[in-house]
Write a structure and sequence with these properties.
With 396 residues, the protein is of the alpha/beta class. The protein has 9 helices and 17 strands. Strand 9, helix 4 and strand 10 form a beta-alpha-beta unit.
Length: 396
């Protein structure tokens, strides 16, 4: 029996996407999608393999292609999960370290494309673009910090933040001026920060991005730390060591825009799935990037799931939300006639405001003591006031 046929038969035993998962996702209130979508290694009826799931509601067909099938676009097809827009399948024999992509053929104009998995927790180093079947298992040793971190992050606590770009810190000149790995940083950075008296470190975006020479603000992998410096477990080790030395960890997070690279979220299934279709709302003229459609339920679930992923799987202590000002104003970096007013005729992005008012209380409720920090460069009122009094709900 072919692996493809065996995989189809075994799908009857997969319980990954229950009806309530689909309901919550489609209504924009599923905040742990990383446990459901993407690639998940499992055993079904004694058969080892990997379950794949991806959201592509306007696809005509979706296939998994990779190192296991010579990158065939035809041999391992996924099947639609009811009317949710999600495609899923189980492929026997695929294990940790397998390279893969999703090949999508759209209903729209015969569009076909190879996509990186939006929920991959590990990807190839750019310019390569394949995802890697992996896990987020790690044996943490930061229990003492996690128990007390609410005191270190409190509004009345002394906080001094060391902001740094992982790829630029202490390069090794005698080895081609290479960057330190996550594991090498774990051995040097905690003591350095302690000696200087810093209480927290803020990493410029470590999430996957296409150009290594940048600061990382063009995110292509919202659930994957950059493979330039090591594996997900290596990054966990760095955070673990920082916590053991009493140093909190803040990550820069970019829900404000994403790049146009063909392998990423842009035009995902032949339609503007993650971004607004109208360029006056969906394209950022200053950064040449796409803007998320915050009014779309599945997009909100995707973004908040990303934030929850870093909090839960990586034990981070704070999220610094980049470019909040660009999210709040419909006319941000636009001239007269280049933007569309909201339903009241104003320039405020009501959907983005609702998203932030959903994001902040959820983070603070699910993870008391965690900081959310807005990069807000205008005079927007009540950024750090609770949503129930009209604020955005940020800590700082």
């Amino acid at each position: 029996m072919h692996k493809e046929q065996r995989g189809v038969e075994l799908m009857e035993h997969v319980k990954m996407l229950a009806p309530h998962d689909l309901h919550l996702y489609n209504e924009g209130t599923h905040f742990r999608l990383y446990d459901k979508l993407g690639a998940h290694m499992m055993r079904l009826q004694g058969v080892e393999g990997t379950y794949f799931a991806v959201w592509a509601p306007n696809a005509e067909r979706v296939a998994v292609m990779g190192s296991f099938n010579d990158w065939s676009k035809e041999s391992h097809l996924l099947r639609p999960k009811e009317s949710s827009g999600i495609w899923e399948g189980f492929i026997p024999g695929i294990g940790k370290g397998t390279l893969y992509k999703f090949h999508i053929r759209s209903h729209e104009r015969g569009y076909e494309v190879d996509k990186t998995d939006p929920f991959a927790c590990f990807n190839e180093i750019p310019p390569k673009t394949a995802s890697i079947v992996w896990d987020t298992d790690y044996d943490w040793h930061d229990g003492e910090w996690m128990k007390d971190r609410h005191r270190h992050n409190a509004l009345n606590a002394p906080i001094s933040i060391y902001e740094m770009h992982v790829g630029s810190w202490r390069r090794i000149g005698q080895e081609g001026n290479r960057s330190l790995s996550y594991r090498e940083l774990a051995l040097e950075l905690p003591q350095y920060l302690q000696q200087l008296g810093f209480t927290h470190v803020e990493f410029l975006p470590v999430m996957d991005h296409p150009f290594f020479g940048s600061w990382g603000y063009q995110t292509t992998g919202y659930f994957a730390p950059s493979g330039n410096y090591g594996t997900p477990q290596d990054f966990m080790m760095l955070i673990d060591h920082l916590h053991q030395h009493g140093i909190g960890v803040i990550l820069d997070w970019v829900p404000s825009h994403f790049p146009t690279d063909a392998h990423g979220l842009a035009f995902f299934d032949g339609t503007h799935l993650f971004e607004h279709a109208d360029p006056q709302q969906g394209f950022h003229p200053e950064w040449n990037t796409y803007i998320f459609n915050y009014g779309r339920n599945e997009v909100r679930s995707f973004l908040i799931s990303s934030a929850m992923f870093w909090l839960e799987k990586y034990h981070i202590d704070g999220i610094r939300v980049d470019a909040v000002a660009s999210m709040l104003y419909l006319d941000y970096s636009r001239k007269e006639g280049e933007w569309i007013a909201n339903r009241y005729g104003g320039r405020e992005n009501l959907e983005a405001i609702d998203f932030l008012r959903q994001f902040n209380p959820l983070v603070h409720t699910e993870h008391p003591g965690v900081m959310t920090i807005a990069e807000e460069s205008t005079a927007w009122p009540q950024v750090t006031r609770p949503p129930y009094v009209g604020g955005l709900g940020f800590s700082f």
